[in-house]
Specification:
Elements lengths: L3 H4 L9 H24 L2 H16 L4 H9 L4 H13 L1
Helix pairs in contact: 3-5
């Protein structure tokens, strides 16, 4: 996976003005679409927040194995659902 530093090396000057405008509009539309999706699915915030809380509390040595176990938990849907209900009270 490339780091942020590699993004700075992209030469957008090779794009025409029209291509740059299309790229900018694509980026804006993507951000708006992503925000709309996240607003219509508040369980995503609860799910990620719960996962990060568990990571920081347990500080697993093997984060990949921990994440695999977390996200394949057969009770995950019920756990997140109960936390969503708790947030609504």
């Amino acid at each position: 996976m490339a780091g942020k530093g590699s993004l700075a090396k992209l030469d957008v000057g090779v794009l025409s003005a029209e291509q740059q405008e299309k790229l900018q509009q694509f980026k804006i539309k993507t951000r708006i679409d992503n925000e709309n999706y996240l607003r219509s699915h508040p369980e995503v915030e609860v799910l990620i927040g719960d996962f990060l809380r568990d990571v920081l509390l347990k500080m697993p040595a093997d984060i990949c194995e921990f994440a695999a176990d977390y996200f394949t938990n057969p009770n995950l849907h019920a756990v997140i659902g109960s936390k969503m209900e708790g947030n609504m009270k």
